Amino acid sequence: MKRLHSELEDLVNEFWHGPRFGVQRPGFRPRIDVMRTERPDELRVVVDLPGVTPGDVHIIVHERALIVAGRRPSVHPEGHVSYHLMEIEYGAFERRIALPVDVDPERARATYDRGLLVVTLPVASRPPTSQGRITITVRTTA
Fold first, then answer.
1. Domain-embedded: residue 94
2. How many domains does the chain have?
3. 111 phi, psi to nearest 5 deg
4. Under DSSP, is residue 121 helix (H, G, I), strand (E, B) or coil?
5. Residue 65: burial class (beta carbons within 10 Å; 0-12, 13-18, 19+)
6. What CATH number is given to the structural domain containing 53?
7. C-alpha pair distances (Å), 122 with each of 39, 45, 76, 115
8. Which one of 4, 52, 125, 130 is at 20 to 30 Å from 87 when CA atoms are compared?
9. pLDDT for 33-64, tens place per residue?
10. Cα–Cα distance between 52 and 117 in angstroms, integer?
């Protein structure tokens, strides 16, 4: 049911974006994969963020959700520009991902490499005692 809700939300968002040319578009919606590994028992969330500076990405775990937010800056020149094709979306983004299991946000980590953000969330053996907001710092791989 959750998957159906997510797919319907994506469809409605695409529909309401309207035509590619015309008024300012609301930003872009990065694509996400969520998977669970067995050994170690973790959730891995992969976010497709090409062109985004890792320092401009904010990651928060709150209750049973992962929030990834930031901004992809435009690379277009200032002044009058005449487009022939415009498919790349820029601007602010925020994705809220419902987590299917309880996680240990204190041990979470995030890395950014070649446009992909990978957030690793260890699965909690028991529900966390605190539901406060935990911020995760993004590290780059070099």
1. yes
2. 1
3. -130, 150
4. strand
5. exposed
6. 2.60.40.790
7. 10, 11, 40, 23
8. 4
9. 999 999 999 999 999 999 999 999 999 998 89
10. 10
